[in-house]
From TrEMBL:
EC number: 3.1.3.25
Taxonomic lineage: Bacteria, Bacillati, Actinomycetota, Actinomycetes, Pseudonocardiales
Keywords: Hydrolase, Magnesium, Metal-binding
Cofactor(s) of this protein: Mg(2+)
Family: Belongs to the inositol monophosphatase superfamily.
GO MF annotations, alphabetized: hydrolase activity
Full protein name: Inositol-1-monophosphatase
Pfam families, per database record: Inositol_P (PF00459)
Catalytic activity, reaction form: a myo-inositol phosphate + H2O = myo-inositol + phosphate
InterPro entries: IMPase, Inositol_monoP_metal-BS, Inositol_monophosphatase-like
Source organism of this protein record: Actinomycetospora aurantiaca
Length: 276
């Protein structure tokens, strides 16, 4: 088997993500269900909750990869890892539980997200929803799927009718700036959604459930798999650092159907997105 075959990597990513999704639910039943303070600590702020679920789920992913793909590098939200893999080395980008606040509060909109990259190019990705069991996945050049059904991004070309997703930072000062930006653009779009899980927001763009999405400050593991899934579904995707001249700011992630992407970028630029 070709070690860089996107279809084979997608299959492995889906299998590990499904196992990890089951573990995430089991840990929540055991630990988070009673909101046990002893099993929670914090990262960047008091609202950025790290649970036993995050740690156990990432450990499981790393154990499985050590068995199945021992030569690969791993970058994970909880344990860090390979920010600069060797040239040509396969790297797995792991968000063990994306949407941690939803997870700890009993909301069903969270996921396990695994992206697979080589030399900065994403080859495969899987995003699994533990509660519903839905599986979103893609292999570069082979399209994107939801439970094996092909996905296609929205063909809408009218910004004033578009449903746009976004996210807000844990840092309060940045969140206030993001809310102000949202206020400036809200009157120019059809409606807005804030669901609290970037990987699933990007998957929602892939499915056409929302017409576009933007957020500032996402980490690599937040968008690695979801960005590929949206792109393989035909969306135009701007990753952080990929468009410094577009006026959206270096930390912006933007994804939208192909008929809407330019208009959404223009709207964000005109509303001062570069200042976030």
């Amino acid at each position: 088997m070709d070690d860089e075959d996107p279809v084979a990597l997608e299959k492995i990513a889906v299998g590990i993500a499904q196992e990890t999704a089951a573990l995430a639910l089991a840990v929540r039943d055991r630990v988070v269900g009673d909101r046990s303070v002893a099993d929670m600590d914090t990262k960047s702020s008091a609202t950025d909750v790290v649970t036993a679920g995050d740690r156990e789920c990432e450990a499981h992913v790393r154990e499985r990869l050590a068995t199945l793909r021992p030569a690969d590098a791993v970058l994970g939200e909880e344990e860090g890892g390979a920010p600069d893999p060797a040239p040509g080395q396969v790297r797995w980008v792991v968000d063990p539980i994306d949407g941690t606040v939803n997870y700890t509060h009993g909301l069903p909109w969270f996921s396990v997200s695994l992206g697979v990259e080589v030399d900065g190019r994403t080859l495969a990705g899987a995003v699994v929803e533990p509660v519903s069991g839905r599986v979103w996945s893609a292999a570069a050049g082979h399209g994107a799927r939801l439970d094996d059904r092909p996905l296609r991004a929205s063909a809408l070309d009218r910004l004033e009718l578009a449903v746009i997703g976004t996210g807000l930072a844990y840092d309060r000062a940045r969140r206030e700036r993001q809310a102000a930006l949202l206020g400036r653009i809200a009157g120019s779009v059809g409606d807005v959604r804030r669901q609290g899980c970037a990987s699933l927001d990007l998957c929602s763009v892939a499915a056409g459930w929302i017409d576009g999405f933007y957020e500032h400050g996402l980490k690599h593991w937040d968008w690695s798999a979801g960005a590929l899934i949206a792109e393989e579904a035909g969306a135009v995707v701007r990753r952080p650092g990929s468009g410094p001249g577009d006026g959206c700011g270096p930390e912006a992630t933007v994804a939208a159907g192909p008929q809407l992407a330019a208009a959404l970028t223009d709207l964000l630029r005109g509303a001062g997105a570069a200042q976030l």
